[in-house]
UniProtKB/TrEMBL annotation:
Residues 39-51 have a biased composition (Low complexity). InterPro entries: Lysozyme-like_dom_sf, Transglyc_AS, Transglycosylase_SLT_dom_1. PROSITE patterns: TRANSGLYCOSYLASE (PS00922). Transmembrane segments: none annotated. Belongs to the transglycosylase Slt family. One of its GO terms (molecular function) is peptidoglycan lytic transglycosylase activity. PANTHER family: MEMBRANE-BOUND LYTIC MUREIN TRANSGLYCOSYLASE C, SOLUBLE LYTIC MUREIN TRANSGLYCOSYLASE-RELATED. GO terms for cellular component: membrane. This is Lytic transglycosylase catalytic. Residues 31-51 are annotated as: Disordered.
Amino acid sequence: MNDALLWALNTLLQDLLTPLMANSAETTGTPFSDWLTNATPPSSATSSSPSTVSAAINAAAAATGLAPELLRAVAQTESDFNPEAVSSAGAVGVMQLMPGTAAGLGVNPYNVSQNVLGGAEYLKQLLADFHQNLPLALAAYNAGPGAVTQYHGIPPYAQTQAYVQKVLSVYQNSSTDA
């Protein structure tokens, strides 16, 4: 089964069954519920191969309508495409999702496909919140939406300013290469 199909099936099952499992003591602790909750199917979807990360990026781009080049630029800047990356602040995976953000999005940040989809969904949400202003959405992805709102623009943090410039540069260079 290809990675995109497995990801879509896993996401659909999780979306449909997670609310039921939360209300049912009968399904708690079964191998299926554990697999669904932990999203660790026995397949290449959890491997850290470059093709898996690329497939996850393509699937997340298709699911969210975001450009795959944009998601690649964020993934490269965040983790250099490393699904096992963990920041000193606790951000996890390819898209460096904070555990609370991942939980709010309903994704397992340790699953490559879900991590990338979660990052893409979060970025799409930030783009909507900041009226499709990509630099502001990227700043919010890095520093948090509260900081962007507080400063009425990209916060005066050197790390965030460098982050926005790097993602935009990688994205623009990948767009011109295509």
